[in-house]
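Curious: can you check?
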Amino acid sequence: MLLRFNSGVTGYLATLMSTGEYWRMQVFGSEGWIELRSSTELVVADTAGNTENQTFDDIDWQRTELENFADAIEGGAPFYIKPEQALHGVEVMEAINASIATGKRVSIG
């Protein structure tokens, strides 16, 4: 998916389902880039080519998310995703589906 945000920044989102598990997220900026290569490895680079690798403990993030959700339901700490953010995520997915169905660009609020 090609995305254009209100700020004018563009994005690209892709998914592959036919290979073994692999994922990454990378963001490019005017002063460098940052890449999350897995749930435990982060690489940060500046425009001069200097890089810094960081590693994190491997956690069961699905369990952590469900525990956070349960805490929110029981009145503990608020869930880290606000309801309006969750609804916007659904709106984005619906716009992607509409674009696939029509072959046209779809704008959302």
Remarks:
- DSSP finds two helices and six strands in the chain.
- The mean pLDDT is 91.
- Strands lie at 2-4, 10-12, 25-29, 32-38, 41-46, 51-55.
